[in-house]
TrEMBL record:
Official protein name in the record: Glycosyl transferase family 2
Native source organism of the sequence: Actinomycetospora succinea
Domain of life: Bacteria
Keywords in alphabetical order: Transferase
Presence of keyword Transferase: yes
Gene Ontology molecular-function annotations: hexosyltransferase activity
Gene3D superfamilies (UniProt xref): Spore Coat Polysaccharide Biosynthesis Protein SpsA, Chain A (3.90.550.10)
Annotated InterPro entries: Glyco_trans_2-like, Nucleotide-diphossugar_trans
Domain Glycosyltransferase 2-like per the UniProt entry, residue ranges: 10-116
One family name in Pfam for this protein: Glycos_transf_2
Length: 312
């Protein structure tokens, strides 16, 4: 049998014990008006019957479904594996508890092809808006429709906030994998997106294509101070990168950078690294000065994290 042609999209889902929400994703993909895609699921060691559920869909679906397993490596390692195994030109993450509009893939493809041929090599992504399960847009809109920019400019210069959704080219996604921090199940997405933004542009569009569900205590967005201790290495890395690589944007959001410096100190202390060790990891005099100024606030936050962990 001849091999199947490579699809335009790999829709990627990382999953762990999500048999109760995966049907939402499957129904969204069944309804897509553009059929040029595969669904790639990386399971992180589920024990809730997810594999059997997906096997049934694989037998009936009219689009390719591939199911890979890893042993509790975390979402960021699942994403790296997904990017390595993807067969599509465009890599589109879709969380295991979310859904998208029937026209989502068709609209993403149209926006991508709408970038002029001579400019497209400088782009890696198209990003759209999300709403929540109540129909409210999450965060703010982009300043223009479309806005050709990058993740850093969108955040700092334009002040765009809230959950957004989009694809990266698979080639770029492989070029910028998530750092794999020992013992950490997740690494903040911003580490990768912000690094990509220094090399490639994104087309941002004011079109709602995904519904972002918050399912109470089950949602990955629910965090506590007790959990901050456990996630400290990944969060400290995230804020260290902000101080070392993004200070050129300081004038647009000085308060945000003070918070970043305080959080860098906070999570570094949570991770057992003292003030001097924290400072040695910063690469510019400006970053070191900002860290020193914000460290007292970071220490207060660290003490609150520690107290919450001890009482949990």
């Amino acid at each position: 049998m001849a091999p199947l042609p490579e699809p335009l999209f790999t829709v990627f889902t990382a999953s762990y014990n999500r048999a109760h929400t995966l049907p939402r994703v499957y129904k969204s993909l069944q309804a897509q008006t553009l059929r040029d895609f595969e669904w790639l699921i990386v399971d992180d060691g589920s024990t809730d019957g997810s594999e059997e559920l997906v096997a049934g869909w694989t037998a009936e679906a009219d689009f390719p479904i591939r199911y890979l397993r890893q042993d509790h490596g975390g979402k960021h390692k699942a994403a790296n594996l997904g990017a390595r195994e993807a067969r599509g030109e465009l890599f589109l993450p879709l969380d295991s508890d979310d859904e998208c509009r029937p026209e989502a893939l068709e609209r993403f493809a149209a926006h991508w092809k709408g970038i002029p041929d001579d400019r497209r090599p400088g782009f890696s992504a198209v990003t759209a808006l999300c709403d929540d399960q109540h129909g409210e847009i999450v965060g703010s809109r982009f300043p223009h429709d479309p806005t050709d920019s990058d993740a850093l400019e969108i955040r700092y210069r334009y002040g765009v906030t809230g959950e957004k959704w989009g694809f990266q080219t698979t080639a770029v996604r492989r070029e910028f994998p998530f750092p794999e921090v020992d013992g950490q199940p997740n690494v903040p997405d911003a580490i990768v997106w912000n690094r990509i933004s220094r090399h490639y542009r994104t087309r941002f569009v004011n079109e709602v294509l995904r519904t972002y569900h918050v399912d109470g205590d089950d949602s990955i967005t629910q965090k506590s101070r007790a959990a901050a201790i456990w996630r400290a290495p990944a969060f400290a890395l995230r804020w260290k990168i902000t101080l070392n690589e993004e200070l050129g944007w300081f004038r647009y959001d000085p308060r945000g950078f003070v918070r970043a410096a305080a959080n860098y100190a906070r999570f570094s202390w949570d991770d057992g690294r003292g003030f001097r060790e924290q400072g040695r990891a910063l690469t510019s005099p400006q970053a070191k000065l900002l860290h020193a100024a914000a460290a007292p606030l970071g220490y207060v936050l660290h003490r609150r994290d520690r107290q919450a962990a001890e009482s949990a």
